[in-house]
Specification:
The protein has 12 helices and 16 strands. With 326 residues, it is α/β, with parallel strands linked by helices. It has a single domain, classed as 5-stranded Propeller (L-arginine/glycine Amidinotransferase, Chain A), CATH 3.75.10. Strands 3-2-1-16 form a 4-stranded mixed β-sheet, with helices on one face. It has a 3-stranded mixed β-sheet with strand order 4-5-6, with helices on both faces.
């Protein structure tokens, strides 16, 4: 599975449409999705999947650099319901697809989103590999050189894979994604929506270097939980035998948490061709986080977008995007 910083053919997104989930915030969420799509569209093609009845609204809010593709959807988290794009040694593209049950049967219906990976693969005319686990793309992160990050809370959760062991899960990831080494972190007990997706906790920023999110509120339970993830990855090596360099970034702890599942992660960014499209929350810490990512990605333009209207739904920019590698 290629790393996210490798060149992209396009970015896939899906239009938010679950009225019972987004409620009165739906229109604001749709505008923020459009802002993200338009920002990414300045650097690479974007295809926005849209329920057939919403295409006119999508075209009105999105720029002409965003292509609209009608498809049946339940909601808008393509990182989780879309395919994991993988390549073989010859560079041929395929779709590695997890079973999807809406983060442990939290939202109904989910049948359209469960079928999305196969529908996109059919649309692209590429082969598929169906994994035996219930899982989401936001629960994994890879370095493109054989190493995968994930969390016990998500993968081994009884609401997805009851009875699954770490050893069994590791072998499934090796078969499905071509990785060699799996690095496990505990997760995030405060994340009751995705059950500790790693894309709100840690990510590779280059081979041998991992960015880990921490909490600045020392003496709190949340601080301890995030430190446990940091400790789990510190001192580890990757699949190539390199000692990992671990860099930390503080989460947007001071953000106005407008919901119980508000996602305050700066790590939940999208690596576009030549850019980083990252979350902002309208707080002072935004600039510090932006400066940190600029230092980590000196050859990429940093674009920061206020995503509070997405974060209320428990996710961020990485959650609503899925890169298709060249």
């Amino acid at each position: 599975m290629p790393a996210e910083w490798e060149p992209h053919e396009r970015c896939w997104m899906a239009w938010p449409c679950r009225v019972d989930f987004w409620g009165d915030n739906l229109a604001a969420t749709q505008r923020t999705f459009a802002n993200v799509a338009n920002a990414i569209g300045e650097f690479e093609p974007v295809t926005m999947l849209s329920p057939p009845g919403e295409t006119e609204n999508v075209r009105k809010l999105c720029s002409d650099k965003v292509t609209v593709l009608p498809v049946r959807l339940d909601d808008s988290w393509t990182r989780d319901s879309g395919p994991n794009f993988v390549k073989n040694a010859a560079g041929d593209l395929a779709a590695s697809i997890f079973h999807f049950n809406a983060w442990g049967k939290k939202h109904e219906p989910w049948h359209n989103d469960a079928a999305l990976g196969h529908r996109l693969a059919e649309y692209l005319g590429i082969p598929t590999f169906s994994s035996p686990v219930f899982m989401e793309g936001g629960g994994i992160n890879v370095d493109g050189q054989g190493t995968l990050l994930t969390t016990e809370q998500c993968v081994l959760n009884d609401n997805r894979n009851p009875g699954l062991t770490k050893e069994e899960a590791g072998q499934i990831f090796r078969d499905a994604l071509g990785v060699e080494k799996i690095l496990w972190m505990p997760g995030d007990p405060d994340d009751t929506e995705t059950d500790g997706h790693v894309d709100g906790i840690a990510c590779f920023v280059e081979p041998g270097k991992v960015l880990v999110e921490t909490c600045p509120a020392t003496g709190t339970e949340r601080y301890d939980n995030m430190q446990a993830n940091l400790q789990a990855i510190t001192g580890e090596s990757d699949a190539q035998g390199r000692d990992l360099e671990v860099v930390v970034i503080e989460e947007a702890y001071e953000a106005d948490r407008r919901s119980d599942i508000f996602a305050s992660s700066y790590i939940n960014f999208y690596i576009a061709n030549g850019a980083i499209v990252m979350p902002g929350f309208g707080i002072d810490r935004d600039q510090e986080a932006r400066d940190q990512l600029a230092a980590l990605f000196p050859d990429r333009e940093i674009v920061q977008i206020n995503i509070a209207d997405i974060a209320v739904g428990g996710g961020g920019i990485h959650c609503i995007t899925q890169q298709q590698p060249l």
